[in-house]
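Sample A.
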Amino acid sequence: MLKHGFIFFTIMLSLICSFAQCSMVLLSPSDIQYSTKKSMVLDYDDAIKTGNVFIYPFFDNATYKIHLRPGYITDIMLKPDEVLNYVGGGDSYRWKIDTASNNTRQGLLTHVFIKPLIEGISTNLVIVSDKRTYHLELISDGTLSSMVSWRYDSISLSMYTSSPPLLKSPALMPLGILFNYRISNTKLPWSPSFVFNDLSKTYIKMNDTISATYLPSLYILDGSNNLVLVSYRFQSGYFIVDSVNDKYMLILGSDKVIIKRMD
């Protein structure tokens, strides 16, 4: 089994201390915990959105779904100072692909520009640089991912000011924090921002604008998709469940959000 780095973005110092009630030390990038992953397909809801940029965790054995819109260009950005060796797609007739580069403070930045000519088509794209290979699944469905990039093993945590710092805690060792969850709907005003577990508890981070008086109800979904009551508490913007489960459902009025743990 191949082991690949994955930077885990996590939780604010005061919040963790209240959860784990133990001393914490901020991690430097060299201290980052890693997770072992098999071959996987990652969609846009597996990315962190910073402004208009969808930022995926990079794995050598992953395929990334990129959603595009006819009449618009999606900008795929490699890591600064990566040298582009090859880019090729399965359908070169209905997709336009171009490349360019520009100088940045971090080094020469390579861009791969993609535009579908019509809606309702899909293909694959392979980008090979001097450091890594990117496997993309392109989907022209009217949804626009205007800019796409990745985070890597040696990434600077300061690039993600919208994410809390990574913390070292005995309560979260040895495997660390796992973000292997998919959220079915991220467009509701109260949709979760992200979900993770520390192998004993599940933490569901809600949108920062949510009010404690305007909270959805939380349930577990069993193997037959039946709703099961679960004990939880809401603290500092998080639903905290004292267990780790495969599926959860948040319900508010007629709106529902399903949270599913991915293997």
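Sample B, a different protein:
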Amino acid sequence: MLEEPASFKLVDLFAGKDEIFIGRSPENDICLKHPAVSRIHASLHQKSDGSLLVKDLGSTHGVTINGKHVDGEAVWNPQTTLNLGPQSLWLDNGNVITVTRRGSLNLEAKDLTVLVPDRKKPILDHVSFTFKPGQFVCVLGPSGAGKTTLVRCMQGHQITSGGSLLFGGHPILSNPTILNGLVGYAPQKMSLHETLTVRQVVWFAAKLRLPSDTSPAEIETHVDAALKSMGIDFLAGQRVSSISGGELKRVELASELVVDPSILLVDEATSSLDPASEARVMDVLANTAKQGKLVLCVTHHLDNIYKADTIIILADGKVVYHGPPGGACAHFGVEHLADAFVRLEDEGAEKWARLDSQSPVETVPSVRKLPPKRSITARFWETMRQAGILTKREFAATLSDRRYLFLAMLMPALFALILIGCHWNVDFSSSILITRDLNGDEKTSFKFFWPVLHDAAKSDGLDEESLNFKTQLGFLLGKKPAMRKSLASEDLNQIIQGAIEGTKTIFPDKIIKNPLTTFKYLSVQVMGISFMGMLLGLTLMVRDGAIFPREKAAGLSPLAYLASKMTIIILATGFQTIIFDGILESLFHVRQLVNGLELTPTEYRVTLVQMMLVHWFAALGCACLGMFLGALTFKPDRAIILLGAMMLPQLTLGTAMSLAATPIPRTVAYFISPTYWGLRASQISPMENGMVALPTYMRIFGDSFIQSVPLALAGMTAQIILYLFLAWWMLRFRRPESA
């Protein structure tokens, strides 16, 4: 059972000193033995007028006075509550400080009502109850009864239409920060890293949620205690993926209990479990309640509910039974409790509803206060701390997954082999004739002579005696029928006329290596590295689809979550780029030795070092796009659809198809296509006087553009920032999961 409240007189605390300290360490003047309290959490300074000044000493979970965060220092007035994690200090008018654990207070609902505009009946209708510490409560009811909404209310996530929900007399719905550090939640869907060991899962949960000054020895002690309390200490070294469903649920419970919450909410603890595992999990929950915690379990299984101290049955949003498990059958007049649900379905909930208060409920949505924010500096360091812990967890989860590591190495190697195989016999040095526009003198000459030549070719040329030049020319052309047919062609006439008017380029200029062959190869290369990047970012987000919402509800910063993912992505994309480009470069030299074919022309591409840097940034940009797509859904089936949908614009805008040569597609590519910048930076187009010195059909980026690797890197950096911001925005407003 919980200890009785302790009291301290100010005159004794400040005897011979101006400042006293509060924290977890025994050396403090007021020692609060709870893992969520920092070692030296806060200090109290008594001013000359007798008033108390509270100072937050860089604690992890902060200090609040009546729900308002203390940034730096604040005056603590009598008749107010000072909260440090789950501990409360009350200062009365007699200068006595009373320490209580906030978790020792009752959870009380009175006429709790939730209405939805599109639904005729309330989701919750005048729900009232009182739950005490040390109780094991089972919430039962058919589908749609309001169990999910009730749990969301207990977490402080649900907007209500009337009634109240109090914890120790304080309203939860208008100020959900009251529950900070006090509630543990285990959702129905398993949310564990399967590649970690059982001990690692619980250890990282403790490291993430306990104060930053918790020593390694203390963390190990809390982890050992949590594992032992769940009866899974013998599984500590096993991988999560190798244990049974019942053991998985106990691992999840241990990761919540490691921070010693006062309320434990469990959704469908025994779903899909065999009878033996179900019984063990219910025994564990009952024993957890005996340790002084309020344990509330939503369940559909009736075999083991007798292990609960009390049950509450909901139907149509109403409480139809609230009492000991043994009294439920008599209440409904049935022999088996399952038959009670049949009666509820046949007769309706109104007959059995318990309305403890018949007073009308004012259907006005509860006003939720914005969560109090700590100083920017405190939030920054807490975010950095969380990011560091999550990064270590990502490394541990990734390095322990050998199959994932193998595929991560295989993919760039396989893509490189496919690409070199498709280009094994391609001659990148093949020549092509380049034409130019006619100059002024040439246009004048063609304008004068071409009509005569064309008309002569069209004439029959039969009058040999005529001295007319056109006739004589036609006669001579008659001796060469093939030439005459060509010169008389209207297609050739249109081409020549276009050259004279300056709309067509036909005059031979020079012979060069065909750049399109190289450009097409470079575009496929960029597409391969971009696809790997996008797939990597999407995979890292989707695999945590059930984990992030639960951890966000426990105080995880979305920015810290993204930072940890970004650390892995930076290293992984760099690793894949080295493998991909390294294999291609090596095999092109092998190709040269075997086939005698030249390497890709250096006049049309950047150096290998520049190429690898560009490819790395393109992969990073697409990986961040993949993270944004993952933040949109977190569901694998939808993620695959989004992957295909977003690869299409990368394919059309970032390849040698010249679709980004026109203004509108080019503008779109600036903002959404890392492959566009990747190809633009990796290729080199011949330039003269700021214009592309290639025929129009070879100008994949238009007539003129700035050819610069630093500019392309800046463009991809801007896209990385954009996609990270969008991913953070989606994560920030993502609703935490509930039952």
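Observation for Sample B: Confidence is low (pLDDT under 50) at residues 355-368.
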